[in-house]
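INPUT
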Amino acid sequence: MGADHDMRATMATLPVPELDRVPFAVAPRLADASVAIVTTAGLHTAEDDRFGLLDPAFRVLPHGQSDLRMSHNSQNFDRSGIMLDRNVVYPVDRLDELATAGVIGRVSPNHFSFMGAQQDLSTILSDTGPQVAKLLRDQGTDVVLLTPV
Amino acid sequence: MFESAGIATVALVSMIEVASRMHPPRALYCDFPLGRPLGRPDDPEFQHRVLADGFGLLASATEPTLVRFPESLDDEVDVPLTCPMPARMDPSLPPAVDEMRGLRRAFDRAASGGVRTALDPDEVEAALFAFDRVVAGTPWAEAGIPDNPLTAALAIRAYYEQAAAGLSDHVPAARSAETWFAATTAAGALMHAALDELRAQKAPQPFWFYILPVSQHRA
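OUTPUT
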């Protein structure tokens, strides 16, 4: 068993937010959908501020922007994969291929990144998360692919 | 909050115990190395299979649904990546700083399809000098550690992982570059010594515990 097995065993013991009700949106037909990625990988453009320790803010990742940076604060995941191929976390090239093939309707203009390994989720739940939801809705996104690291 | 706004989500989850308690609307559990939610770098066919299973939930799920991707991938934390290392060039420098300078070409040779670390080499060098002073006995708060020990340590580790990506002729197994850094390089040795010294100096627990991945801590 590897290091990730041990990490999963540790994480399984931590408390998680208890939701009274799980919202469940009506899914569109994928071939008609505008799809965006929301990741917790701590990604941003070269011009953006880095993520600070326990930073609950988000960064906008314009689709087509290929010069990306990672400033995630956690030590406990592999970085070598994304350093070779962004698609292993942030599959924008795969979405382009799916759009070209007509599997998805189109790729949304912007994607978004938070930084995972948070301790206090209150700002994300009450502030920055809803801000991203509004930005997604305003740009016509129907489907979000969530890629936590 | 996305679903409340009418946006359907598909989550590639990596922690099945956590996901099963949170009931995300549509979740595909991928038993892959942490940090690689689509599994295999530079393998578009594999990544498309993961996406097909995930997006397939949009049509099939009518209530919170968690399914498992049929293949698992393991990390290889016990197998350090083999990388050609630079020769010692300047004996007047701490070994880790000399080594780090020697890896600069590999660091700069980052893959065009990859994501680079946001932390720049000057900070990495300053951090290595500072941790070298800590190991020599300078109180950690007076050693000139850029920002804080955790961020400085992350800068060093990320520099080495990016250099490993430039040195390796194949996609490294997950965590093998991490183990190469922590177990075989001069900088890794420095960080192990710094962890012990920061702990002995009673630095705040996160400032020594997290300066190396937990998987690299020695008993």
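end of record. The radius of gyration of chain B is 21 Å.
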